TrEMBL record:
It comes from Nonomuraea guangzhouensis. This is Uncharacterized protein. Pfam families: PspAB.
Length: 185
């Protein structure tokens, strides 16, 4: 960043650190101890699909890599979601596969199309929580949906308290975007 950028108040965007996803299995143990939430075995990657043969080839490669463990869907905002399924006690493999999808897209030049990745959790009382990785910020945040597009703010803050020190958490709460239609949540 040059002095002119500093003078004009411009800053470089944070570079995503996809390897931060590998901290999720350890964070899941901490989250379970603090809140009783356990992994569901479901995780998603959200991105804006691109047109053209290169992107179609990339999607085909991802489906070949993950086989029948991946489903594709779209939301009302025009984003594409890839839902990955694993056994609930296999969060390490789930995270590895989510990382593979993200890094494959990034390596093919489609990194700017990535929005977020998430891993979902639940407890015996039916509470749901997703740990969301914001690709463009390189940070995580908890999202706990309730019915009727309401959020369980208390659970989100409890999860944040449990995960501090485990994951690079998004400090700006206004960036804790709701992902209401996220598959697997």
């Amino acid at each position: 960043m040059g002095w002119l950028d500093t003078l004009l108040g411009r800053s470089k965007p944070v570079q995503p650190n996809l390897d931060a996803l590998f901290a999720l299995p350890s964070a899941a143990v901490t989250l379970q101890a603090a809140t009783g939430l356990v992994p569901t075995g479901l995780g998603s990657v959200c991105f804006r699909a691109a047109e053209g043969g290169a992107f179609a080839t990339l999607e085909r490669d991802v489906h070949e890599l993950l086989g029948d463990r991946v489903d594709k869907s779209s939301d009302s905002y025009g984003y594409t979601w890839l839902l990955v399924r694993r056994s609930p006690d296999d969060i390490s493999d789930l995270v590895t596969e989510l990382h593979a999808v993200n890094s494959t897209m990034e390596g093919a030049g489609f990194g700017p199309s990535l929005l977020c990745s998430l891993v979902s959790f639940t407890d015996p009382d039916g509470r749901r929580l997703a740990i969301v990785y914001l690709y463009k910020r390189g940070t995580f945040y908890p999202f706990a949906p309730l019915s009727g597009q309401h959020r369980d703010n208390a659970l989100e803050l409890q999860a944040r308290g449990a995960l501090e020190g485990e994951l690079p958490l998004e400090q700006d709460l206004s960036r804790w975007f709701p992902v209401w239609s996220a598959p697997g949540l």
